[in-house]
Write a structure and sequence with these properties.
The protein contains 3 helices and 6 strands. The protein is an alpha+beta fold. The strands form 3 sheets. A two-stranded antiparallel sheet has the order 1-2. Strands 3-4 form a two-stranded antiparallel sheet. Strands 5-6 form a two-stranded antiparallel ribbon. The protein is globular.
């Protein structure tokens, strides 16, 4: 079992126990990936909670991930805004996911 699989299983368990909020996950149980690897998927847009959603322009936010620099941005392609508490939480999860996946990649390379 690699680090991603272990983390997915762990987060599923503690989320089901009510200990981990779904917004605090660094993995995606739908896609089976680190959250930063699939956050651009339309399934991660929610106009009601404003996850990746610009209320003013009524459109999904554009996601840019630079894995080398460790930078994650989300903004509205029309107005440049779209900031919300839910999106800020998602940005934090993506940054943590980038860090965790980097540690996993280094561990895998060292084991080879």
């Amino acid at each position: 079992m690699n680090a991603l699989q272990a983390r997915l299983a762990f987060e599923d368990r503690v989320e089901d126990m009510g200990v981990l909020d779904a917004d605090d996950r660094v993995t995606c149980h739908v896609h089976g990936r680190w959250i930063h690897q699939c956050v651009a998927s339309p399934i991660h847009v929610n106009p009601v909670t404003r996850h990746r959603w610009c209320r003013d322009c009524e459109r999904a936010l554009t996601v840019v991930i630079d894995e080398l620099a460790g930078v994650v941005t989300m903004n509205c392609s029309r107005c440049g805004g779209g900031v919300s508490g839910a999106t800020a939480h998602l940005l934090t999860a993506c940054r943590a996911s980038l860090r965790a996946s980097g540690r996993d990649a280094r561990s895998t390379a060292e084991a080879a």
